[in-house]
Amino acid sequence: MGAQKKGATARVSEDPEELARHPLQAILLADSFTTKFRPITLERPKVLLPLANIPMIDYTLAWLESAGVEEVFVFCCAHSKQVIDYLESSDWSSQPNFLVATIESHNSISAGDALRLIYERHVIHGDFVLISGDTVSNMSLTQALQEHKERRKKDANAIMTMVVKQSKPSPITQQSRLGTDELFMAINPDTKQLLCYEDKAEYSKGFISLDKTLIADNPSTVLHNDKQDCYIDICSEEVLSLFTDNFDYQHLRRHFVKGLLVDDIMGYKIFTHEIHSSYAARIDNFRSYDTISKDIIQRWTYPFVPDVLCGNSAIRVERRGTYRASEITLSRSAQIGPFIVIGQGTEIGNDTKISHSVIGEGCTIGSNVTIEGSYIWNNVTIEDGCELRHAIVCDGVTMKSGAVLEPGVVLSFKVVVGQQFVVPAYSMVSLLQQPTQQDSDEELEYADSSSGNVELPSKLNGDITSDLSETRHGPTSELGTGGVGYIWSIFEGGHDEEWRHSVAPIPTDKLAKIMLDKDEDEELLTQDGNVLSPSGELKSDSDANDSEDGDNEGSRDDYVSFEKEVEATFLRAVHENVKVDHVILEVNALRLSYNMASVDCAGAIFYSMMKLAVESPHSSSSELHRNAADVITTWQNLLKSFLHDIDEEIEVILKFEEICLESAKEFSPLFAQILHLLYDKDILEEDAILRWADEKEGADESDKVFVQRAEKFLQWLREAEEEED
Amino acid sequence: MPDTQALVNDFLNQLKKRKIEGSQATAKQTAELLRSVISQTRVPYTNQAGALIDSVKAVGERLIAANPVELAVGNIVRRVLHIIREEDVSLTTAAMAGLNLSAVSDDEDDADRDDRPVLSAAAVAAASRSTLRPPSLQTLLEDVPDSAAVPHTSSSGGDSEGKSKSADKSSRSRKLKHDVIEAVNELIQDINTCHEQIAEQAVEHIHQNEVILTLGSSRTVLEFLCAAKEKKRSFRVFVAEGAPRYQGHLLAKELVARGLQTTLITDSAVFAMISRVNMVIVGAHAVMANGGVIAPVGLNMVALAAQKHAVPFVVLAGSHKLCPLYPHNPEVLLNELRSPSELLDFGEFSDCMDFGSGNGAPLLHVVNPTFDYVPPKLVSLFITDTGGHNPSYMYRLIADYYSADDLVVQRRPTSGN
């Protein structure tokens, strides 16, 4: 009675109005839409994999519940049956004030598809938390939610709040802790608006590109490489409809977030919320599985730690981070080292040494076994004298006596390793054969979720096991005498990258290499800076230019092909009498697909117009001038729609200069006249022209040619201005 | 009628998620929950006490398992079980007194047959206690029996039960439940008022111009100090901040708001300051049967410092904090390890938590225990709502509140089922 009353009032008091109207909802994606956990995920969904002996999804759900979420929609795709069965049999289906509903789909191949499907169901009303079922956190949502709501009230375009966490900006931490690539974010320190998100910063490249307008629009921008994305997002309803509108959005970060950041037509904004003392991380690959398991054992995720989460099954914490279930059989001479979890009903034999490991329930471990940094799931049999170092061993595996697992090995369900067999480092072993069809990268990325061919009923699975044991019971198999299972060949190209995502610690030579690369990068960067700074004078805001310039070299090709596309579009418009509005739309589409700024569009369009003028027949320069005037008059609206501010107008003038110098020298005598024409047509404002002239003031003599040509016109403009004054 | 099961589940959830903090709130909610469990339990004709005990035990076991660190839950469950037994015994003796003792009473017979181990043991225990009680130290000193329930209910029960034997049974079943609920209400009342009752004794302990030291924050201590202040005592308080949760800061704020001269010090400065202190007054998480105290982390150090300088170390504890278990009992979970993030910022130290390099073993391990164990020899005095007691007297006080049969609540139903 009292308890309930208290709970109810506490919940209401958090936000009396908002919460009374809409219960806080969450979408939990119970599918990662990647294949990083293969071959394990061929047989069991990732969210049900045990993390310190408790399925990952339990951590996520427990956190959602404690954070005040009242309705959770669990989106199941691959192995949806297993997830649904698990949820039904667990406590989660019978919680008061916490509704867990499942949404099943068999043909979603990405997070984007999932969100589109959820949108069609019309179950989300108001703000919701978007999270995937492999996220562990103990943060409090109250503040983040409140910030999100307040921002929404002020600005309806603030549709998403992304949770980030600081991590030490050591050169290798990102890689060695979570196995993810370095992540760069540009954040406005005052408003906390996210301006740029770059997770694929290549090591070889050593730099990232920023849009110049981004720096122009935001007085202060901080570029972070010490932020970790927690993959917890607070979203408004619009997010779902955005996914539906943009049917090509697949990946939450790569497509959606970057898409929103690039798209300045709609003006949607993403903000960040930084957490300090609380914990949040997502299990993305085997390395982060290892790291987060260790964080949990070290209790960073308190109260979501095994002894508290388990509740009644009584796991006790002992000294040096040892978690022991109540009923285990432990030999007196066994050495149970620091930081281990041992599940119920496990037996451990004489002189066995275990450290930094997680042992599941019902395992039988013989004598003289060495287990170090490994994850052993339920009902595993390890016979005498085995050695395991930094390996993952799934349910039902048998290791015959004397077998050895080298660092980074993953044994999938029910594999048998033969006597004295040494499984080489980083091998993946499964009862299922490696899927052979690998059409393209994209296919590979999402293949796991095309659940039809992947999902195997457990019965069939059993058959396979027996088949295998019959056929492969010969004296030697891939896994030694009496071994059952296939060693997967490592994907081509991934061969030297396998250590990145493995559970094993990074070998010292690789570590040294990363460090070295980093140093080189830094040197390279500083060199770049030195070389580029003198030539970077064209840009007005010099401090932002280093990276921009560096990028220019790389994206020069891009720009050329973009210009060609725009030209083709423009010519087609001229010949087929397409309406100006449509041309604008097409050019915008091109701009998005080539990731260009609107400055580039203006330049490209102007270039096409001038080219058209040159190419139409003319005999004298006056005729050329008439041609140009015709074109400009006809298409002035098109050009104007891409000239939003002065910088873009200057860009057009610069472009014109370039044309006169390079592609169409016929124009150079007409420079001043056409400039005047553009001014008359209100395409260029006098400010822009004067600014251009001012900028040219300090340039070389050769650069000043056109300023001198236009001197008369400039003079006239200045006088007009003074007269007005 | 609210569904008891739902209430139990809700409460279990809150306990599990560590959402209820403080032993007083937990104790009160536990008692309220058990009251509704009792009122919802259907009582059979015979062996009503057994039925009530079973249902309370069933719920109690789950509550204790939900948060084994919060000993107040177990204490209250045991208190309620004790209340049921006492009420039952008093009714039975009253009934037997009402009938002629020569004939073997049906009631006694039924009860014996159905619930031989429990009831007979209880009866024996109660009998042995009641024979023990007259010379008990407390009764000798205070002249008034502490648990007034026994004589009171037996006299009132005697009136109604003497009439006829047939009416007796039905009325008894309602009577027992009614009495038990009454008694639980009293218990809730006790829990509610324990702060005031303890605070009332403040003037006897705090004298003019004294310097009091405390660590962390405890509501009992706050009320105690304020009560002394209200009685026009003027004294100074040193507050040790109580790292890593720094609840001492809050206490200092509260004390200043109530006009007390307060000095805030770091925990590590306690030893340096203790020579100027006249008395250490602290709260407790639980008081064990041997007089040992489970208290916020850092208190053992304070107690040792106090002993070194012969400063009295006084522990304030409401009676719901008295735990009938000894600290060496296997089911007592002495400590809870909280998140390291209270000590250090994860972001700053994430490179120390780097498992990818080296041999994969973390070199940094952060331990953040919640509690300390202060052995009884370091405690000078306990002040509970019934008065001041020596640590060596705790087991007697506990015998008044709990039945020996209930000490292991969680074991019996598991072995029974």
Notes on the structure:
- The complex is a heterodimer of chains A (725) and B (417).
- With 725 residues, chain A is an alpha/beta fold.
- Chain A folds into three domains: 25-201 and 212-286, Spore Coat Polysaccharide Biosynthesis Protein SpsA, Chain A; 313-433 and 482-488, UDP N-Acetylglucosamine Acyltransferase, domain 1; 555-722, Serine Threonine Protein Phosphatase 5, Tetratricopeptide repeat (Alpha Horseshoe).
- Chain A is 42% helix and 17% strand.
- Chain A has a nine-stranded mixed beta sheet. Chain A has a seven-stranded mixed beta sheet with strand order 5-4-1-6-12-8-13, with helices on both faces. In chain A, strands 17-20-23-26-29-32 form a six-stranded parallel beta sheet, with no helix packed on it.
- Mean pLDDT of chain A is 77; it is low at 1-19, 438-476 and 525-554.
- Chain B is globular.
- Chain B has 17 helices and ten strands.
- In chain B, the strands form two sheets. In chain B, strands 3-2-1-4-7-9-10 form a seven-stranded mixed beta sheet. Chain B has a three-stranded antiparallel beta sheet with strand order 5-6-8, covered by helices on one side.
- Helix content of chain B is 52%, strand content 10%.
- In chain B, strand 2, helix 12 and strand 3 (261-265) form a beta-alpha-beta unit.
- Chain B has two domains: 2-192, no CATH class; 201-335 and 370-416, Rossmann fold.
- Chain B has 417 residues and is of the alpha/beta class.
- In chain B, helix 2 (23-40) packs antiparallel against helix 3 (48-66), helix 3 runs antiparallel to helix 4 (71-98) and helix 5 (106-114) packs across helix 6 (116-132).
- At the A-B interface, helix 1, helix 3, helix 7 and helix 11 of A face helix 1, helix 2, helix 3 and helix 15 of B.
- Chain B: Belongs to the eIF-2B alpha/beta/delta subunits family.
- Chain B: Keywords: Cytoplasm, Initiation factor, Protein biosynthesis, Transferase.
- Chain B: GO terms for molecular function: transferase activity; translation initiation factor activity.
